[in-house]
């Protein structure tokens, strides 16, 4: 089956960014300077992140409008759309509004004191992190329930169970570290930090959902709807991998030379999330092709 | 009154001629859909009333082939095999058509599934 035009455009944009990333990484390897890498993540990287999430918002909204409000998939796409909105708000706060970059409007108008930047960064982290995750997890859970009801959900394989076990072990380690900080170090976390601690259990839950979705995709085959949920599962898997890499970097388990490679995984996650609704929209377009009812307009 | 307000007032007063043909078109589509549904339901009812083993039914076979193609496009080959496996032992191609319809309604939505169903049953007389 040929790759959709929209999906091809999204992944071509990612490839272009990765080419720049390889050049910046090569510069880092030869000179040891982070200058080009920092520039890549602050300019084209930030723009890519915001635009790709905006594309996801638009596409998820269109996918939502393909269903009537009484249908189960309407609720699913509403939750995914809201989750995408939260990720877009988070990206805007985190990548643009709280960053000391020349194209930040707050920097241009000299209205970004340090404490304000920190507050906006925290808002971005919370809204784009746990809040978006809760909405996405709820949406994916509804899809899984629907697939189970229709007999499309298969049993998890050994590989699926191993991945879930690994992420559960990782979550347990994170929880024990949090407990250590609270009980032994007597750290008093802020509200944002406390909410952010929910990210890892939520990610573990999402990874279980992603494994179930992957299994159902394998049970269905390579249809347009299956590919939609396969892309969503890929997005969740990349987010989980990004979180594990972040944790490993923080603890110094990854050599400095290969650390920047792990940062690029977030671009894969956001591209996969944007690709998923494209397949749902294409499925509806193909369904209406040749029928006397037209494909629903963008309005 | 400034000119945008005047313009807005005129727009509100004027009967919207642009909408009228659209409304007619929507009505025509609804009537066509209802007629199509009644026609297919009539055929289904006739099939149900007579014995299913009344000779080979080419029209039904053709619909099943179209439904198979639709399931393969939208869900995938494995989904098609699962539908067949779940339907065939109970007997009758009609059941596999209904199971396919059910999956399409769930994953594509009623409107898109209806469009597919109309194409699947377009050969029925």
In brief:
The complex is a heterodimer of chains A (299) and B (125). Chain A is an all-alpha fold. Chain A contains twelve helices and no strands.
Give descriptors for this structure.
heterodimer; A: 299 residues; mainly alpha; globular; B: 125 residues; 6 helices; 78% helix; 0% strand
Please provide a written account of the structure.
Chain A is built from twelve helices and no strands. With about 300 residues, chain A is an all-alpha fold. Chain A is globular and about 55 Å long. The mean pLDDT of chain A is about 85. The longest helix of chain B has about 30 residues, at about 20-50. Chain B is elongated. With about 120 residues, chain B is mainly α. In chain B, helix 3 runs parallel beside helix 5, helix 4 (about 75-85) packs across helix 5 (about 95-110) and helix 5 (about 95-110) runs antiparallel to helix 6 (about 110-120).
Helical segment count of chain A: 12
DSSP, total strands of chain A: 0
| Structural class by sheet pairing and helices of chain B | mainly alpha
The proportion of residues forming helix of chain B, as a percent range, comes to over 70%
- Fraction of residues in helix of chain A: over 70%
Low-confidence stretches of chain B: 14-22
Question: What is the strand content of chain A?
Answer: under 5%
